[in-house]
TrEMBL record:
Transmembrane segments annotated in the record for this chain: none
Keywords of the record: Nucleotidyltransferase, Transferase
One GO BP annotation of this record: UDP-alpha-D-glucose metabolic process
GO MF annotation list: UTP:glucose-1-phosphate uridylyltransferase activity
Xref: Gene3D superfamilies: Spore Coat Polysaccharide Biosynthesis Protein SpsA, Chain A (3.90.550.10)
Pfam families in alphabetical order: NTP_transferase
Protein name: UTP--glucose-1-phosphate uridylyltransferase
CDD domains on file: UGPase_prokaryotic (cd02541)
Residues covered by the Nucleotidyl transferase domain: 9-266
């Protein structure tokens, strides 16, 4: 039902300097896969097939990543290295990728508005790639897409955070209407310490209805002098409905060094090492079958 997924990816990634001096932060690898690829896989798993990426200066490697690299593929053709590209090849074949450049950084709301041309006039998802989300059964976007089918309104993913961390996030308040689903009646971007309306923080997964674009256009710069999606969503909540969803799964803040290391350890143990073991077992059994 939701086809488009928007990836705001124009930011500088200053918290990871000097690593991000010439490399986009979305290309930072967690084990052997760039952050944005995890997000794209999550969107594809949720049934989306159009990846719309809002880029900025110096982000060429993002485009190259979701494209063929003939020279490399020719070099490794027929060797056992080829299977390392299986996943990304499959991802590239499962979706189309379009790009638009955000010339000025005026905040997340502005980045989303920049993607309007790519997304069109339909509901769409937004993924902030530095929030890496994992769930063993069903990805967060998939969970949210199912909710959208039922409620047909904008949805933000939320998570409980310690009170002394609420100032880093958009924070919501509202009424619990069902297990894990809250109807938002207030939301505030990065509240000052001690003033947050709750400990439910927005994390980087959204489903937005297209009327959000006009609301963003009419949104004045807010926190940090930037156009905030949180402010536009509050208007939507006041005039219609916005839901917050306490998702199932884990989220790692890969915008911070600590979160990035945690994600790396988790993905190494729970994804990479397991896949590798399964692959090796698979090879052994094919080998045995061919001997037999
Ligand atoms: C953005 C949003 C914020 C949200 C956060 C999630 O902030 O503005 O509401 O809680 O992403 O990661 P940023 O971290 O880009 O400053």
């Amino acid at each position: 039902m939701i086809k488009h997924c928007l990836f705001p990816a124009a930011g500088y990634g200053t918290r990871f300097l000097p690593a991000t001096k010439s490399m986009p932060k979305e290309m930072m690898p967690v084990v052997n896969k760039p952050l944005i690829e995890y997000g794209v896989e999550e969107a594809i798993e949720a049934g989306m097939s159009s990846m719309c990426i809002v880029t900025g200066r110096g982000k060429h490697s993002l485009m190259d990543h979701f494209d063929k690299n003939y020279e490399l593929e020719h070099q490794i053709q027929g060797t056992n290295k080829e299977e390392l590209l299986d996943n990304i090849r499959h991802t590239i074949d499962s979706a189309d990728f379009t790009y638009i450049r955000q010339r000025e950084m005026k905040g997340l709301g502005h980045a989303i508005l920049t993607g309007r041309e790519l997304v069109g006039d339909k509901p769409f998802a937004v993924v902030l790639a530095d929030d890496l989300c994992v769930h063993e059964q069903e990805g967060v976007l998939s969970q949210m897409a199912a909710l959208y089918k039922q409620f047909r309104c904008s949805i933000v993913a939320v998570q409980e955070v310690p009170e002394d961390e609420t100032h880093k996030y958009g924070v919501i308040k509202g009424e619990m209407i069902k297990d894990n689903i809250i109807r938002v009646d207030d939301m505030i971007e990065k509240p000052e310490q001690g003033t947050a309306p709750s400990n439910l923080a927005i994390i980087g997964r959204y489903i937005l209805t297209p009327d959000i674009f006009e609301l963003i256009e009419a949104t004045e710069p807010g926190k940090g002098g930037e156009i905030q999606i949180t402010d536009a969503l509050l208007k939507q909540a006041k005039s219609g409905c916005v839901l917050a969803y306490k998702f199932k799964g884990k989220r790692f803040d890969c915008g911070s060094v600590e979160g990035y290391i945690e994600a790396t350890n988790y993905c190494y143990e729970n994804v990479y090492a397991k896949d590798k073991q399964a692959n090796e077992l698979g090879k052994q059994s094919t080998h045995k079958e061919s001997i037999a």
